[in-house]
């Protein structure tokens, strides 16, 4: 197949048993606005599946077609690479090489969705658009921007990314213009071992620190901005946790932020990145943080984008996996994150 319009539009074919509704992590639509909390699209590891997954351009917008029902149910955009997808799948705990459909992923965000009961059939789509789409064994196929727009306009979407739930008869926004990401409370899906009930999302809450609401507002404002802006927010967060301002220093050696204890000894080194999604940047940040922590004797290594904090304790083992304590996201804080948060407080972080 060719790649009309530079391959920026496509149809992604999935089967009900693989994606809908078996894997709750792909079903959790409100997960899209955070990078490391991205929704995922999986691909077949057989035949040309890996090549197809690797070559879809970032920014490609796809209409997701469920073969078993012969209906389009989602409009999505690919937001990261296969390498990004694997790292996110590992963080979410869904990567499993023993299972065919849990090894190759691409991060996505949802642009629109419609329930199966409401979605038009393939025959109805053809009648409304004149686009003759013939599903077969392909994983993904490129289409023109015109065909994408015709199909999109023929579907009575019940939810769109910029506007939330839609009422019957309301006009549809153009999917060719990138809509803004909404600021909304995310839900985290958990596996239940069953395929006939939806996952129960946990309760999210304000982080247990003074001025939490103001801090979250600052975090949202600096997302995507240069790292220096994020460092200011990281410093504010550390002060709210109880660290004196005099104990926090910027750009010491090769690390972004260093935090000392009451005796002036290094306790935490922090690498601040604009995004933790890019595989190479994430690995480089971790390596730099550990290298510098070893030089100054800091027990804790932290990587952050001012919202997500990934914490390692060098006293716990000899490899990254054993030293990794966990991660939290301040704008989606849950009760279970308190353990990781407390590690960053002055009293707890100082204890061997």
Summarize this, please?
This protein has 352 residues and is of the alpha+beta class.
Structure description:
- The chain contains twelve helices and 16 strands.
- By secondary structure, it is of the alpha+beta class.
- The chain has two domains: 4-183, ph1033 like domains (ph1033 like fold), CATH 3.10.590; 212-350, tt1808, chain A (Alpha-Beta Complex).
- The strands form three sheets. Strands 1, 2, 3, 4, 5, 6, 7 and 8 form an eight-stranded mixed β-sheet that branches.
- Strand 13 and strand 14 (308-313) form a beta hairpin.
- Helix 7 packs antiparallel against helix 8.
- The longest helix has 18 residues, at 279-296.
- Residues 17-36 and 163-202 have low confidence and may be disordered.
Low-confidence stretches: 17-36, 163-202
Structure summary, number of beta strands = 16
State the secondary-structure class. alpha+beta
Amino-to-carboxy terminus distance:
59 Å
Question: Keywords, please?
Answer:
352 residues, ph1033 like fold, 2 domains, 12 helices, elongated
SSE layout and pairings?
Layout: E1 9-14, H1 16-19, H2 24-27, E2 39-43, H3 49-55, E3 61-66, E4 71-78, H4 82-92, E5 104-113, H5 122-129, E6 140-142, H6 145-153, E7 159-160, E8 164-165, E9 204-205, H7 212-222, H8 227-240, E10 248-252, E11 255-260, E12 266-272, H9 279-296, E13 300-304, E14 308-313, H10 320-323, E15 324-329, E16 333-334, H11 338-343, H12 346-350
Parallel strand pairs: 1-3, 12-13
Antiparallel strand pairs: 1-6, 2-5, 3-4, 4-5, 5-7, 7-8, 9-16, 10-11, 11-12, 13-14, 14-15
Helix pairs in contact: 7-8
